Amino acid sequence: MRVLPYGNEAVLAKFDSLVDVMGFTADLETTPPHGVIDVVPAARSVMIWFDGAVTDVEGVRRDLLARDVVARELPDGDEIEVPIDYDGADLSCVGEVTELDESEVIRRHCGATYVVAFIGMAPGFYFLAGGDPSLQVPRRLSPRTSVPRGAVGLAGEFTGIYPRKGPGGWQLLGTTPADLWDATRYPSALLAPGTRVRFDESGHK
Predict the structure, then answer these.
(1) Which of 24, 43, 192, 198 ranks highest by number of CB atoms within 10 Å?
(2) CATH entry 2.40.100.10 includes domain 79-200
């Protein structure tokens, strides 16, 4: 882990792997350093914001470096089932890249248990980790100017869910009608980081 200052009231902790990020984030949320007010995980880093009237960069940095980094893949707890239609425009392309037929792509994607690693790129865009390694595919070479709300796609080690219509370059497997993000609701995000997720095709065909 490397800890770098990020202005006067934040530090950025960098890691080698996503599982290290998830483990360290869980530790910070359980026992936050003195003065810390927010923890924001990403794919290989964690941003830690603190109250500058209570502590400073060096104080938070010393606390972080004194902690062990323990990898964490899937937390314990209840699962949330997300309904899905496997009607994505890139389903056949994913099959070609992975050398699997479409039904096998669906079976492997639907059969995995995921965890919300973090929310980013746009408000309510969920990055889900823990999928079948055989379904790791690159982003599209040419992003789409418009991806439908609720689209479920693949990019690298993640499955992502688009919270609203907009541009995007992920390989689209399907769509979900689930209302996973609502700015008028509190909390706006139905799926918080650390939530376990399974996709369910049976109830939405």
Answers:
(1) 24
(2) yes
Q: What angle do CA 12, 15, 16 make, to 5 degrees?
A: 155
CATH number of 2-65: 3.30.1360.40
Q: What is the pLDDT of residues 128-186, one digit of tens each?
A: 998 899 999 999 999 999 999 999 999 999 999 998 898 999 999 999 998 887 778 87
The CATH 3.30.1360.40 domain(s) of the chain lie at 2-65
* Residue range(s) in the chain whose domain bears CATH number 2.40.100.10: 79-200
3-state secondary structure of 82: strand
Whole-structure pTM value: 0.78
Q: Strands 166-168 and 10-14, how do they pair?
A: unpaired
- Residue 181 CA to residue 99 CA, distance in Å, equals 34
CA distance 198 to 114: 6
Q: How does pLDDT run across 179-193, given as a tens digit for each residue?
A: 887 778 877 777 888
Outline where the chain has alpha helix (H): 18-30, 57-65, 91-98, 102-111
